[in-house]
Write a structure and sequence with these properties.
This protein is α+β, with helices and mostly antiparallel strands. The chain has 29 helices and 26 strands. The longest helix is centred in the middle third of the chain and has 38 residues.
Length: about 900
Amino acid sequence: MPSQAPKDMYSPPRWLDKLLERFCAPHLLEEVIGDLHERYYLKAQKIGEAKARKWYWREVLAYMRPTIFKRQTSPHSKPIITVMIQSYFKIAFRNIARNKAFSAINILGLVLGMVCSLLIFLWIQDERSIDNFHTNGEHLYRVYTRNYNSEYLDVNYKTSALLPEELKTVIPEIQYASGFAKELRLSRPGDIQETFQVGDKIHKMKGSRAGADFFKMFSYPLLLGTAENAIAELKGIAISRKMANLFFESPEAAYGKTITFRNESSSSELIVTAVFEDIPNSSSDQFDYLTNWDDWVQNDDFKRFWDHLGTHTYIQLQAGVNPAEVEEKLKNFLDSYLDFPEDRSFYAELGLQKFGDQYLNSNFENGRPSGGRKEYVQLLGAVAIFILLIACINFMNLTTARSIKRAKEVGMRKVVGAVRWSLITQFMGETLLLVLISIILSVGIVWQLLPWFNELTQKQIALSITDSSLIWSLVVLMSSVGLISGSYPSFFLSSLQPAKVLKGSISFGKKAIGFRKGLVVFQFILSILLITATIVVTRQMQFIQTKNLGYDRENILYILLEGELLNNYLTYKREVSRMPGIKLIDRSSQTPHRMGFSGPFVRWDGMDESNPINFVPSSVGYDYVKLMGMEIVEGRDFSHAFPADTNNFLVSVSAVKQMKLDDPVGSEISIFGKTGTIVGVTNDFHTQSLHQSISPVILDIKENLNFGTMLVRTEAGKTKEAIASLEKIHNLLNPGYAFSYSFLDDEYDKLYHSEQIISKLTTAFGALAIFISCLGLFGLAMFSAEQRIKEIGIRKVLGASVSSIITLFSKDFLKLVGFSFVVAIPISWFAMREWLQGFAYRIDLAWWIFAFAGALALSIALFTISFQAIKAAIANPIKSLRSE
């Protein structure tokens, strides 16, 4: 066998090696050149050096490709902080993967807390945006009226229809002023729907009246027309895109066209002088059309008097004007237009409220705007913070409960040179990673829950990832939750002493144990607060829905009397009464659940003229008391058998008390120039929501009134037949008006729209808060079991029973819940008492509500820790004592 030639006998061209050295990535160079040299040596021996050189040339060229050029950065070339962060995240991912159950519980608690907080944040953001989108918002104000009396102070937004134009004329600081009709008619306050017709299209639309300055003041985009001329013409009308599409198929086709407008008793032709974009949900004023203010005032005798207070006034101040100075001028503005008594036993003042504040601050206290929906925003904001805190505390407890598992890791890291700040950074990094995962999951869940949440809250909230406010909110949420959740575990774990840890003699001091117990106490204080709030709010809502209002609102619907029905009411009543499903029909000038028209209209012998009393008048038919299911407590009801009853009155019990009549039946009273005798006294009944006290009511007979509402009591279970009957006769007698109706019980429930939403939200979020709290308690139970495992083992060896160990294990936790109950009760009692103050009629804060909340919290806590207690009690003591 021939001898093999030495390797240095055959050398490839040096310049080709240099070419490779120049272009080949450093981390591949040694491997590539070594491989090529080895193969070149074998080729040279086999085919000769000349052919081997050609082969080497081809191979070097073949290596000239991107994968060979690409450099790989050496770990040692990276900044130390980058390497460290990468290392921390690797360790964090490994810990999450290694402790799947622990990580899942932690993430679940954070996700639930964040989902609740994000939903509440979106709701609060939507609430705060109402009426705050107008370009001139900082200069827009709403006028309100303070009515002073020797015995009371009444504050509301109702002003004279003559006020807007007069303010702009007299006070130069006011740039624009506009009236706005929140209530078009006494019979149905707040329900502003009127009939329009184009060709054979007849529809009822929601709208109002407004002054010529309205579109100059407010940022409602105009698609066609100008702000100066939108509703400046007496017979002009501005309509929405929706209304233009409904009647004319497009805004362009609508502009300049004629539309027939029918109110209660008249009809007119209006010209479409502007088309505006549909009103956004962020506006408290919702309307599909606006007609001219001056035309409305000129055609209504009541509106031309300064003492007729039924409309709203908006103003825009000049730039740079001090609103306090304008309000001072407004204070006694009405003195020049109304005759107040010289002794000022009765007088009125005007005040200003920023337009953007009216939605959240519609209540008044001491004559000034003070709260309203703002309290609900603050309440739910507090709930969001509570739930987030509970979730963070849950994370702390679960993390510290697992601290023994990581104690040796901390000890080893400190032994090899890790300093405390690096350990704190590591544990905070792990927390932030869990928080980031939780936020991503939370946003996804919120996205899926929004349709349900919008249905629950009756909103149209959208989640936009590109919304800068949402992005910043998520950043703040991640930072705050990460800092709160990770701070204590990070500082606690980094403080462990390596000598003690590695010897296995780790122990936790009283301060550390006390802090964790304090966190659980705080959790359950918040949980008991939420349980109590849920019970109280739910019971108050049930009280509202079931309270005897003084009349039976079931199976009653009402229809606006308009058009031919005003002249043919008795015919309509007679024809409909014969139809299927109809039990009883009558009429009223005001709907029973919202009798907003009141005043010092009544006169009687012996009245104190210096102390006028507001009465609620309502003109009704002969069957009103019977239809409403009311009672006559003294005297008799109206009757056709007494022709003089058209001049007589029924009064409520409260009215008798206010008039201080010892023998009311037979007493003579006068109202609106009509003098008659009281023939009967009815029971008291609620004329508005339970937020207001019962008002004194005066009833008289007026079946030929030129406005009002027809009330219909249907046969139980025959509502559909009754509605069909009503519509059939309506279309025959009143074909120019669209048929519409409302159920009295549904409209009554709408008075408590905000309270019902708050009740549902507190129930849902309260249940989640309890669940998250239980996770935290479970974490502390887990921690305690790990700490006391040898103690439990020794007790079992010495003969302790399973039940005694469960009792020993559970009693400490139940003490914590009991202490939470003691602290939470006075706080929850005070908070709920303040909330109930907003209702004139409310439930009592019975002791059992708080006892039930405490018992429920105790039961849930016992159920939560029982699993861990039983597990510790039945564990084999051999395993726990093996090292001994």
